[in-house]
Amino acid sequence: MEIQHDSHDLNLSTMHVHLDHDNCLETVILRGPTLQVRALADRIIAERGVRHGQLNLVAVDLDIKFHRHGHVHSRPKT
């Protein structure tokens, strides 16, 4: 959790599911530059207690629009 808090700018969403008494499944959705996303995923996967980890990258071509309040609206280019 601390790693995710340290990289809050890349972390869009996390889902944590209890599979049974001893096992959980966590899915983390990240968005950002590929090198930063890979580095964060590698840090999470290397944590003690993580049994299986996999990074799935989805490349998108974004047309980024900045809203007047400073946050980003992004849509795929058409």
Description:
The protein is an alpha+beta fold and 78 residues long. The protein contains 2 helices and 4 strands. The chain has helices spanning 2-6, 34-45, and strands spanning 11-18, 24-30, 62-66, 72-76. Strands 1-2 form a two-stranded antiparallel ribbon. Strands 3-4 form a two-stranded antiparallel sheet. Strand 1 (11-18) and strand 2 form a beta hairpin. The longest helix is centred in the middle third of the chain and has 12 residues, at 34-45. The termini are far apart. The mean pLDDT is 81.
Tell me the layout of helices and strands.
Elements: H1 2-6, E1 11-18, E2 24-30, H2 34-45, E3 62-66, E4 72-76
Antiparallel strand pairs: 1-2, 3-4
Principal-axis shape equals elongated
How much of the sequence lies in strands comes to: 25-35%
By DSSP, the count of extended strands is: 4
Give the ordered list of helices and strands: HEEHEE
Give the CA-CA distance, first to last residue: 37 Å
Overall mean pLDDT stands at 81
* Low-confidence regions: none
Helix coverage percent of residues?
10-25%
Q: Give the radius of gyration.
A: 15 Å
**Count of helix runs:** 2
Based on helices, strands and strand pairing, what is the structural class? Answer: alpha+beta
Strand order of the largest sheet: 1-2
How would you name the oligomeric state of the polypeptide chains in this document? single chain
Largest sheet: 2 strands, antiparallel
